[in-house]
Design a protein that fits this description.
By secondary structure, the chain is of the alpha+beta class. It has one domain. Helix content is about 40%, strand content about 10%. It has 2 helices and 2 strands. The radius of gyration is 17 Å and the shape is extended.
Length: about 80
C-alpha cells in the first residue's frame, strides 16, 4: 500500500523570502524571478528524486483572478 504525504509551508515576502527561490530550491531547478530580476539556480542540488513545477501563463492567472473576484462579489451581494 502506498502512503501519501503532503506538506505546506508559507513563504513571507515581508520577511525577505521569495516564492521563486523556494520553488527553485525544492525542485532543484533554475528559475528566474521577474519581480526582483534574479535567477535562482539549484540544479546541482542532490537528493531531488522527482519535481514538478507548474508555471501558469499570464492569461491563466488573469482568468483565475476574474473568477475569484466574481465569487467575492456574489458572496457580498447575497450576504
Amino acid at each position: 500500500m502506498a502512503l501519501y504525504h503532503f506538506h505546506v509551508t508559507q513563504v513571507s515576502r515581508g520577511a525577505g523570502q521569495s516564492v521563486i527561490a523556494s520553488a527553485a530550491y525544492r525542485s532543484g531547478e533554475k528559475l528566474h524571478d521577474h519581480y526582483y530580476g534574479e535567477s535562482h539556480d539549484y540544479t546541482k542540488k542532490n537528493g531531488v528524486i522527482m519535481s514538478n513545477v507548474i508555471k501558469l501563463s499570464v492569461t491563466t492567472i488573469r482568468l483565475l483572478y476574474q473568477k475569484w473576484y466574481r465569487g467575492l462579489f456574489f458572496l457580498k451581494k447575497n450576504i
